[in-house]
DNA sequence: TTGCAGCTCGGGCAAATTTCCCAAGCCGGA
DNA sequence: TCCGGCTTGGGAAATTTGCCCGAGCTGCAA
């Protein structure tokens, strides 16, 4: 398996942009101790590549079309709990970060990070540590002072209302469909936002979509 | 001026992600005839770097925070009509492509393109030709045949605000990024809803996602 | 049995936002 | 030149949000 660990760190690159992958590959391999052993351009291929190459670290961009990157994390971790997955994306929303860690990611760095920080994070997760970039740490820290946790903290009713809301239903339509007062739906709406840490309706929709609650 | 043209093509890289820039630099410079003479991480710095280095080609990612990338194109072209700007982004919405060419871009390639296609496009625009990747050509072709998407009725400013909104930004954040008053952003928000027929914010996010304006 | 905890459902009320309508500056085309 | 469209924002009423509250249920544990 990861016999290369003695001589360096093997990395699986998952990103849907070919030139971006090639760029990362060159940046990483110029480090000396990092070796890109495989690439994948979608979540579905990611697990196959993981199984075939058993890399020390998976560098994963979760903003991919098609299947959710979160699903890819869960997929890989479910079959290989030892897998080290470093999420690498331009998104920096607290709900996404928490969802990624909840799905089993070992680290989360944004593309705004300096290359040295990214490389450092790869080495950290390869050592089994948890890693995140400074901006992510700040976002999580601020978030933890105000909000609770992610989507699985929601009750059944809240999930149902979130699903309909994210599907495009108005408050009135949800209330009519569930035989609730508009006020109750509004209260659930507010409750869902505070529970998930979403600051806007758009973030709520994105969260619902990334968690597979709704399809877009 | 561009005396390096005899020995190669000088390129200015504009992208807000440091590691992405570094990756592109390595990919381009491995070609032999391409030289990255400068980098910028925002639209404001892009023109300064352009003036200082007079590159043959500007490789520009228009999905940057702060001022619109389209503005950067117009900025550079207004002062240096000979500038060759190759837009390089993960977005592939027809309205964006048309807006970019309308603003004075010489080419448009997506990050889904093969590196060889990107390099080919750089050489093409350096020769003064117009260039676009295959997927963009298909999208433009289909668009010219169809009645047009819901986003076609939106102005460039509206598109930019919709993108940021659907990406999860708050009204205040959008206003700060674009140097607008909160009131103006609110007005755009309302205008976008009425123009597209969206009744809720969630529908707006879904619309933006289905049109490729934002990715979830 | 009592009691606690958590979900569900809604009222209340101040603060914020949305919804429209309007106006002014700018720019490009007829 | 005039018209139309884009951009930017003010104003004011209507609506929603943010956050507090209580009350009825259920399940579970002491």
UniProtKB/TrEMBL annotation, chains A, B:
<keyword id="KW-0597">Phosphoprotein</keyword>
<dbReference type="GO" id="GO:0006355">
    <property type="term" value="P:regulation of DNA-templated transcription"/>
</dbReference>
<dbReference type="InterPro" id="IPR058245">
    <property type="entry name" value="NreC/VraR/RcsB-like_REC"/>
</dbReference>
<dbReference type="GO" id="GO:0000160">
    <property type="term" value="P:phosphorelay signal transduction system"/>
</dbReference>
<feature type="domain" description="HTH luxR-type">
    <location>
        <begin position="147"/>
        <end position="212"/>
    </location>
</feature>
<dbReference type="InterPro" id="IPR001789">
    <property type="entry name" value="Sig_transdc_resp-reg_receiver"/>
</dbReference>
<dbReference type="InterPro" id="IPR000792">
    <property type="entry name" value="Tscrpt_reg_LuxR_C"/>
</dbReference>
<dbReference type="Pfam" id="PF00072">
    <property type="entry name" value="Response_reg"/>
</dbReference>
<dbReference type="InterPro" id="IPR011006">
    <property type="entry name" value="CheY-like_superfamily"/>
</dbReference>
<dbReference type="Pfam" id="PF00196">
    <property type="entry name" value="GerE"/>
</dbReference>
<dbReference type="InterPro" id="IPR016032">
    <property type="entry name" value="Sig_transdc_resp-reg_C-effctor"/>
</dbReference>
<dbReference type="GO" id="GO:0003677">
    <property type="term" value="F:DNA binding"/>
</dbReference>
<protein>
    <submittedName>
        <fullName>LuxR family transcriptional regulator</fullName>
    </submittedName>
</protein>
<feature type="domain" description="Response regulatory">
    <location>
        <begin position="10"/>
        <end position="126"/>
    </location>
</feature>
<keyword id="KW-0238">DNA-binding</keyword>
<feature type="modified residue" description="4-aspartylphosphate">
    <location>
        <position position="61"/>
    </location>
</feature>
<dbReference type="InterPro" id="IPR039420">
    <property type="entry name" value="WalR-like"/>
</dbReference>
């Amino acid at each position: 398996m990861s016999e290369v660990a003695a001589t360096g760190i093997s990395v699986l690159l998952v990103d849907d942009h070919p030139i971006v992958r090639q760029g990362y590959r060159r940046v990483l391999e110029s480090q000396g101790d990092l070796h890109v052993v495989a690439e994948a351009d979608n979540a579905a291929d990611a697990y196959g590549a993981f199984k075939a190459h058993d890399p020390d670290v998976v560098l994963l961009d979760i903003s991919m079309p098609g299947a959710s990157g979160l699903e890819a994390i869960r997929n890989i971790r479910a079959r290989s709990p030892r897998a080290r997955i470093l999420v690498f994306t331009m998104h920096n929303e607290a709900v996404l970060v928490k969802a990624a860690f909840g799905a089993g990611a070992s680290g989360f760095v944004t593309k705004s990070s300096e290359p040295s920080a990214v490389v450092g994070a790869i080495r950290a997760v390869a050592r089994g540590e948890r890693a995140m970039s400074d901006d992510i740490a700040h976002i999580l820290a601020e978030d933890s002072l105000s909000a609770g946790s992610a989507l699985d903290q929601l009750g059944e009713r809240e999930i149902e209302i979130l699903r309909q809301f994210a599907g495009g239903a108005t408050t009135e339509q949800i209330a009519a469909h569930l035989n609730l007062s508009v006020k109750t739906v509004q209260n659930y709406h507010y409750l869902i936002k505070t529970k998930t840490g979403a600051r806007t309706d758009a973030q709520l929709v994105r969260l619902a979509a990334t968690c597979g609650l709704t399809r877009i």
